[in-house]
Amino acid sequence: MYNKIVPKEFLNIDAQFQVMTAYTATVTVRLKRGVLDPEAETTRQALGRLGFELESLRSADQFEIDLDAESASTAEERAEEMAERLLANPTIHDYTVAIEER
Known about the structure:
alpha+beta, elongated, purine biosynthesis, PurS-like_sf, cytoplasm, PurS, nucleotide-binding
């Protein structure tokens, strides 16, 4: 029988290996109310010419991000950070994040 010296970080295996779950984060970015939205206005006018009566229309961009995370809340935090740092401009955009387990 051999005696082995094991580093203490290997003694608590649960702390070292975490189970990751696959999630899809859906980030929807839209202009804040009051910010001009020329894309939506052009689309609203075209729909009006086709006979559709609309009070208002807003455009939005939607991003679906597949990621692995320890929990749904961790996946949501990561997606919100992506939205804040790149996907949305907080001066002119609002955004929502929805998380779904894959």
